[in-house]
């Protein structure tokens, strides 16, 4: 009888212990499962954040690319293309919208317009795409009444004058013109000068004058 009671007690203890062990095992498995779920969720969140960062970077590159596309090619590059098409001396350069031109088109394209006194002793109008420096058109201007002596009397070239102006006022050149008028207060008179308009790095418009004989720069204070 005592033996049966002892056996029953042992069996009960085994069952109770097994239940406790099973419960502990289940609890442990549940805890590990919960940890795995949290880790998976964290990894998913990290991947989402990474994708968002990648998208932001792509948007930034695209925006930078659009900004770069909006900037005109340098005046040097556009002028080189113009003079390759029409060898001679450039006396005027203007950055403008194509719709402002007299060809009637308005496609939003910006162009450089150059006046070139050719080696053939004829004035030419040359249009260069401001986006890629491609020459769009050249036109002879036989009726131009400009002084044909002016280009030869300017020892300082357009490019040299522009570089001198940019050293004085950094920014983007939008207009250059060789002015040979005598009705001003220049000492001695008769010496041409370059009139250059620049959109400064400060966003303001500036007009500078560069002596066509010495490259000396003066600022038109009326525009300040």
Mean pLDDT: 75
Largest sheet: 8 strands, antiparallel
Strand order of the largest sheet: 4-3-2-1-5-6-7-8
| Class of secondary structure makeup | alpha+beta
The radius of gyration computed from the alpha-carbon positions, rounded to a whole number of angstroms, is 39 Å
The coarse silhouette is: elongated
- Total strand count, please? 8
Helix and strand run: HHEEEEHHEEEE
Q: Count every helix, treating DSSP H or I runs of 4 or more residues as helices.
A: 4
> Roughly how many Å apart are the termini?
118 Å
SSE topology:
Layout: H1 2-70, H2 75-85, E1 88-97, E2 110-118, E3 123-129, E4 135-140, H3 150-153, H4 158-168, E5 171-179, E6 193-200, E7 205-211, E8 217-219
Antiparallel strand pairs: 1-2, 1-5, 2-3, 3-4, 5-6, 6-7, 7-8
Structural overview:
By secondary structure, this protein is of the alpha+beta class. The protein has two domains: 1-70; 75-223, no CATH class. It has four helices and eight strands, in the order ααββββααββββ. It has an eight-stranded antiparallel β-sheet with strand order 4-3-2-1-5-6-7-8. β6 (193-200) and β7 (205-211) form a beta hairpin. The protein is elongated. The termini are far apart.
């Amino acid at each position: 009888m005592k033996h049966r009671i002892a056996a029953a007690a042992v069996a009960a203890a085994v069952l109770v212990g097994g239940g406790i062990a099973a419960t502990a095992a289940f609890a442990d498995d549940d805890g590990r499962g919960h940890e795995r779920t949290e880790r998976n969720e964290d990894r998913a969140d990290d991947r989402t954040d990474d994708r968002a960062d990648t998208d932001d970077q792509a948007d930034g590159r695209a925006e930078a690319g659009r900004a770069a596309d909006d900037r005109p090619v340098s005046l040097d590059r556009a002028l080189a293309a113009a003079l390759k098409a029409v060898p001679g001396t450039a006396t005027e350069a203007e950055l403008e919208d194509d719709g402002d031109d007299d060809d009637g088109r308005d496609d939003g394209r910006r162009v450089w317009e150059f006046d070139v006194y050719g080696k053939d002793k004829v004035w030419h109008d040359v249009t260069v795409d401001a986006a890629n420096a491609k020459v769009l058109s050249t036109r002879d201007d036989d009726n131009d009444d400009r002084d044909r002596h002016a280009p030869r009397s300017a020892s300082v070239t357009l490019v040299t004058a522009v570089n001198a102006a940019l050293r004085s006022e950094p920014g983007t050149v939008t207009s250059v013109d060789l002015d040979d008028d005598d009705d001003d207060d220049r000492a001695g008179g008769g010496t041409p000068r370059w009139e250059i308009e620049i959109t400064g790095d400060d966003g303001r418009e500036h007009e500078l004058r560069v002596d066509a004989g010495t490259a000396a720069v003066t600022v038109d204070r009326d525009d300040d």
